[in-house]
Amino acid sequence: MDTNMIIGIVAVVVIVAALIAWGVVKSRAAKQSAAADEARQARQAAEAKAAAERAAAAKAQAAQTESKQAEEAGTETVPSASVKKPEPEPSAESAAPAAPGAPSEPVEAAEPAPEQSAPAEQPAPTPVPVAPAKPAEPAKPKAEKPESALSRIQRLKAKLANSSNPFGKALFNILAKDNLTEADWEDVEDTLLLADVGAEASEQLVDELRKDARITGKADPADVRASLREKLLDLVGRDTDRRLNVNKPGANKPSVIIMVGVNGTGKTTTAGKLARLFVADGKQVVMGAADTFRAAAADQLETWGAKVNVPVVRSDKDGADPASVAFEASARAKQDNADVLIIDTAGRLQNKANLMDELGKIRRVTEKNLPVDEVLLVLDATTGQNGMTQAKVFAEAIGITGVVLSKLDGSAKGGIVISVQKELGVPVKLVGLGEGPDDLAPFDPEGFVDGILA
Q: Where is the composition biased (Pro residues) (predicted)?
């Protein structure tokens, strides 16, 4: 084999090897290019999908906001020419910057897509706007139906009979003995004093019982009970006019009632319960929250009023001038031609002269719009004779026309009914018998006496 042949063979081998190497390199480059194209297509598709989701979320949020505004305005949403049509969803190359409110993300938009790249997702068809039904107004809570006054009086007897108010039973047990000794009569007087009947009224009752032939000597229990009932009714006042002034012929309209009393007597609660009592009688009521010192007082009064659809006039801020609230409440009641205006005032100690003077100011300011027909003093029956000092000071400061005894059912001091009337010369008109919303009743003397003797 000569040299030329060897050189030719080597040249052929070299050329073949070069061709093989070039083919391998070209194949690898093609694979890398295809892989890059696939990766770019997948990234673009993912970005387009994310952009479409962001656009859909933004569109849903805008629709929700528009619907909410329409509900608040109480108007019907009807598509018109001025309503902006929803824009089509962005394409794969421009989806990211087109999403409203979404953060801008870098997208290889400048690089031309390969000829056989996956087609971009088509935008969803734009829905045709349809006029929705007129949004229903939020339903008002159904007003409660308060219990009638007559039904409450029947419950008065039952509650007193089952309460811890035993002074009537204690008196009967002593007086029903066959022969009463001097010690027995002393026990009678002590029982009356412990029940807060008062010293003068207790002495008067004992003297009358001593003179009653049905009790002295050998007594029949039925006669003793009848005699004791008559004597207690006389002391309580069976013929006293206990009607609220609003219920009397020729009453002003609106008739104004101001609630007064010391802290903790249940004054605001009593005002709310009184409103329910008037609503049960078919009267239109407005309440004024003139207790601006206690943060929760106005809220508490509004809660009571909302249950029976009674409007409450209140100040926008705590610590406002109570007289200004009373003035606005009287103006509102006059404008609405209401039957009754109930003004709740702040609780105060009877020994604070400036606070007591403020009550007089509330009355004077209210009377610039409407005459004040009633001032009700709310007394806690459990305080007994301690409440008498309070009552006297309030009577001097603003003039009291009646008394409301709260918490009477849980008191052994029912005799305060007798003593407070004797001291103030005004009747007990209402009594609170419990924590229920309708546990405020007109005071019925016979029901009260029968209850404590049951």
A: 122-132
The structure tokens 């509900």 sit at 71
Cβ-contact 357, 397 below 8 angstroms = yes
- Binding-site residues for GTP sit at 261-268, 344-348, 406-409
| Known binding-site positions | 261-268, 344-348, 406-409
pLDDT tens-digit profile of 65-89? Answer: 766 665 555 444 333 334 344 444 4
DSSP code at position 245: G
- What does the pLDDT average to over 10-28? 82
Tell me if the pTM is above 0.85. no
CA 93/CA 111 separation, integer angstroms: 10
Core vs surface per residue 168-205: b (16+ CB within 10 A) or e: bebbbebbbeeebeeeeeebbbebbbebbbbeebbebb
In sequence order, what DSSP letters do the residues of 372-405 get, joined into one string? EEEEEEEEEGGGTTHHHHHHHHHHHHH--SEEEE
377 - beta bridge partners?
A: 260, 403
